[in-house]
Design goal:
- The complex is a heterodimer of chains A (376) and B (291).
- Chain A has twelve helices and 14 strands.
- With 376 residues, chain A is of the alpha/beta class.
- Among the domains of chain A are: 15-47 and 81-153 and 201-287, Rossmann fold, CATH 3.40.50.300; 293-360, 2-Layer Sandwich (Alpha-Beta Plaits).
- In chain A, strand 7, helix 7 and strand 8 form a beta-alpha-beta unit.
- Chain B has 291 residues and is an all-alpha fold.
- Chain B has one domain.
- Chain B is built from eleven helices and no strands.
- Chain B has helices at residues 9-14, 37-54, 56-81, 88-116, 124-127, 135-163, 174-198, 204-217, 232-237, 242-254, 263-289.
- Classes of the chains: A alpha/beta (376), B mainly alpha (291).
- At the A-B interface, strand 1, helix 3, helix 4 and helix 5 of A face helix 1, helix 2 and helix 5 of B.
Chain lengths: 376, 291
């Protein structure tokens, strides 16, 4: 899907984007903001630390639960909170298939929460379709469709009613809503379950219902929060095809994921974020090209990896090596050939190798080189 | 849907003619339609009433059974045994109506709120509606009021049937009956909004024991407020209990010849309390809905 010089993609080779993206592609000199579907400027979100005694989990604040992110002071002063987003600047073009890639707790869900008007930013601003997500949230909700991380259908209603009622919340007249519901039920292959309670649907079917629901009011911009998280490989592939089709209809798609392959295969541009900060933003091809040379080889040892670091660095073909606790990480010129040498280096340092991870130059090696962590 | 042109024909046919100029180049898609808040409000209400209709049996068991059992014991058995006088049923009836009205309104809002804001946050599909967030809790309160009034409407004839003729009963002044019923249900639906969004679901059992049970017993449902003059401390303490005003105003409405608080006082108190509870409930809803 992605080939050639990524900075100047040929419009003709990108059949999928034939509808309105051509506008942008054909006029590269145009100021990007003129066609921005989404813009954020210095967007920051700090979740206040919940008083320890209050048992109620804060909704939508899963990011707050991540370990190590809270710069809590030693005294536990209440003035600090959990920083979910540092100062995010993003610009997403209309019609773009945009990916937000990062590990759990990176700030992906918070970003989507702000853009879908469900989370209030602490500072900075965000616009969707030219509308401010805080001051003009009603207008924003009119043009967006949201697919949540966990399917949250209305369990009191049937599958069909879920769609018809959701349409009615957007003021869509009954007859149109019903016609569109039938169409979407067929498209998403859940027409035979139309009159079932949603509890009787499988996970994949519920996920498809959520996407159908997000499309019922024909929104211009679709947000999907880790939509393939709970799906088996077959369902994931089917969902990818669905998303490509939705994108071909001219919609802007913003997708968060922690699957490298998903970002690589689907997205035109990918933002890599970690710990609330934007680390990189480019096409997958450009991002991969900027990954440090060589294959990533990561050994997990049974003790401190630093002991083996010097020996690893001295090996021929090792471009770079670093140790982080029990992990010995090396970028090797010729992939697999260096594994034996690295294992020997570890054993000479008195360590046993308990795990080996191996990745060719990819978004993953880029991510590891930027954050010192793997994505999963 | 699978081929260009991308717009679904059905949507195009009814699309509004006013595309916002700032919507960018996704012009191939139909422009977003302006949505009237009232339309959405009635759509939300329709959803709640359809769900309520499906659960009408369990709803009535939950909200009407306990008042009717009370009627059975205090309005039929005890007077038959001669432990209470026949006149007591006139005092009891408005109180029983108040209890079913108040707690059906409260439960019809509080219980759905707890599941809606539960693990899967089912309410999110309604929070995505292009209307101000406050419309969603407002609709919940109205839906709770309707369900509360249905419960009272079921209890009234059945209580009359169980207790026999009730001295002083008069439903002639329909406007007054309707007015105090609306105020009472609004007060308790708002309380339901507040409790349903502020109390963690795992403490719902505690809510019934700690808040609702004392509220019922010290709500002047089983005795008139004027009768408490024998225990003055209690007479003033119970004024903090909103059920007192619902019961006393219903006395003024359906048994006007029996002792009751002046309607202006009880109705005024309900207006103030309903407003305060709505503000608290709205604020609490907002805190759960947004982070």
């Amino acid at each position: 899907m992605r080939s050639g010089a990524p900075r100047a993609p040929s419009v003709r080779t990108r059949i999928e984007r034939r509808i309105d993206v051509t506008l942008i592609e054909a006029q590269p000199s145009i100021a990007p903001s003129a066609h921005a579907a989404i813009r954020t400027r210095a967007l920051r979100k700090v979740y206040p630390l919940a008083p320890a005694r209050k048992g109620a989990p804060r909704p939508g604040a899963s990011a707050a639960a991540r370990p190590g992110a809270a710069p809590a002071t030693a005294t536990g002063a209440p003035s600090t909170g959990v920083v979910a987003l540092e100062a995010l600047d993003l610009e997403i073009r209309a019609g773009e298939f945009f990916g937000v890639l990062g590990p759990n707790g990176a700030g992906k869900t918070t970003t989507l929460g702000i853009l879908t008007t469900r989370v209030l930013p602490t500072a900075g601003e965000a616009q969707v379709a030219g509308l401010d997500v805080v001051k003009e949230s009603v207008g924003v909700r009119r043009v967006i469709g949201v697919v949540p991380q966990r399917p949250n259908p209305d369990r009191q209603l049937t599958v069909r009613e879920n769609l018809v009622f959701h349409a009615s919340y957007f003021g869509i007249p009954r007859a149109i809503a019903e016609a569109r519901t039938s169409e979407l039920l067929a498209t998403f292959e859940i027409a035979d379950r139309a009159d079932s309670k949603v509890d009787q649907l499988s996970g994949g079917q519920q996920q498809r219902l959520m996407i159908a629901r997000a499309l019922i009011h024909d929104p211009h911009i679709i947000f999907l929060d880790e939509p393939t998280g709970g799906l088996d490989p077959h369902a994931r592939l089917a969902l990818w095809e669905t998303l490509k089709r939705i994108h071909r209809e001219g919609r802007t798609i913003v997708l968060t994921t922690h699957y490298m392959e998903e970002a690589d295969r689907l997205c035109e541009r990918v933002a890599i974020i970690d710990r609330g900060k934007l680390l990189a933003l480019d096409t997958p091809a450009n991002l991969k090209a900027s990954a440090p040379g060589g294959t990533l080889i990561e050994l997990t040892l049974d003790g401190d990896a630093a002991a083996a670091l010097d020996a690893a660095r001295a090996l021929p073909g090792i471009l770079r090596a670093e140790a982080e606790r029990t992990r010995l990480r090396a970028f090797a010129e010729r992939g697999g050939e260096s594994i034996a040498g690295l294992i020997r280096a570890a054993e000479q340092a008195g360590r046993t190798v308990v795990d080996v991870h191996f990745a060719p130059p990819s978004l993953e090696t880029l991510f590891v080189s930027m954050t010192g962590r793997r994505l999963e | 849907m699978t081929s260009a042109p991308p717009a679904a024909p059905a949507m195009e046919a009814s699309a509004s003619p006013a595309p916002p100029a700032r919507s960018g180049p996704a012009a191939a898609l139909p422009p977003p339609r302006p949505v009237a808040a009232m339309t959405v409000f009635f759509a939300l209400l329709r959803r709640d009433l359809i769900v309520a209709r499906r659960e009408i049996v369990s709803f009535l068991i939950r909200t009407a059974l306990q008042p009717l059992l009370t009627v059975m014991v205090f309005g039929y058995l005890l007077p038959s045994m001669g432990f209470t006088s026949r006149g007591y049923v006139g005092v009891l009836l408005p109180g029983i109506l108040a209890i079913s009205l108040a707690f059906a309104s409260l439960q019809s809002v509080a219980l759905p709120m707890m599941t809606d804001f539960g693990f899967t946050r089912e309410i999110d599909d309604r929070l995505l509606a292009p209307v101000p967030i406050g419309l969603v809790p407002l609709e919940k309160v109205v839906s709770g009021m309707i369900q509360g009034m249905i419960s009272a409407l079921v209890v009234l004839p059945m209580a009359r049937l169980i207790m026999g003729p009730i001295p002083g009963l008069s439903v002639d002044n329909i406007a007054v009956v309707l007015g105090v019923t609306l105020l009472g249900s609004a007060t308790f639906a708002s309380l339901g909004l507040w409790l349903g969004t502020a109390i963690p679901p795992q403490q719902i059992g505690l809510m019934f024991s700690v808040i609702l049970a004392p509220m019922i017993f010290f709500g002047c449902a089983y005795y008139p407020w004027a009768g408490l003059h024998k225990v003055p401390v209690l007479q003033y303490a119970v004024l903090a209990n909103p059920l007192v005003y619902v019961a006393e105003s219903l006395r003024g409405a359906v048994t006007p010849s029996l002792p009751h608080m002046p309607l202006a006082a009880s109705c005024g108190a309900m207006v103030v309390i309903a407003l305060l509870l709505w503000l608290a409930g709205h604020r609490s809803f907002w805190k759960r809905a947004m982070s």
